[in-house]
Sequence to fold (229 residues):
Amino acid sequence: EPEVTQTPSHQVTQMGQEVILRCVPISNHLYFYWYRQILGQKVEFLVSFYNNEISEKSEIFDDQFSVERPDGSNFTLKIRSTKLEDSAMYFCASTRLAGALSSYNEQFFGPGTRLTVL
Amino acid sequence: AQSVTQLDSHVSVSEGTPVLLRCNYSSSYSPSLFWYVQHPNKGLQLLLKYTSAATLVKGINGFEAEFKKSETSFHLTKPSAHMSDAAEYFCVVSETYKYIFGTGTRLKVLA
Fold:
């Protein structure tokens, strides 16, 4: 069964450093997402991406964050200058379609990357 | 605007007894609703989903949920809890491009 994969599973970085989190969505999916979950808190939407551009982003997704689909398979989240409060689990998700066709709204989540900023 | 309220942050049940995890939602349109489970240090696994077909939805591992529009609820139930059900459960509402997660309910199953 196809699945979303994420690398690395755990990333440790120093404050101020840049990190890139990588995701490989399911191959025939068209919409891609990043979410984060700070330890002990709920999962929060960061950004959605379709047709090589951002569809929607949350208030959390400020200028320190960027997303990219550099090739036909990878989807990346970059944090330019990490802060202590960026420490969290980051989940990538993908879906075939979104919007009015609600029956296709199921998002498939990767296992997450745990980011620790020291 | 969409929102999800999970009414209990923690639920404890004895093994073999029924489970009820409560979820209320707010949505302007006909939403899609989901329940996800997260075991410790694991990712998010879909338990079940409601997408405007049958109002009683059956999921994996014996879980089911009933969509009640009049009550704007989507409670998760299971007739008999198992030790392996101990986890965090998230109710999710989706209208278009994003999921809105509830704050989660931690289920504890006592032997």
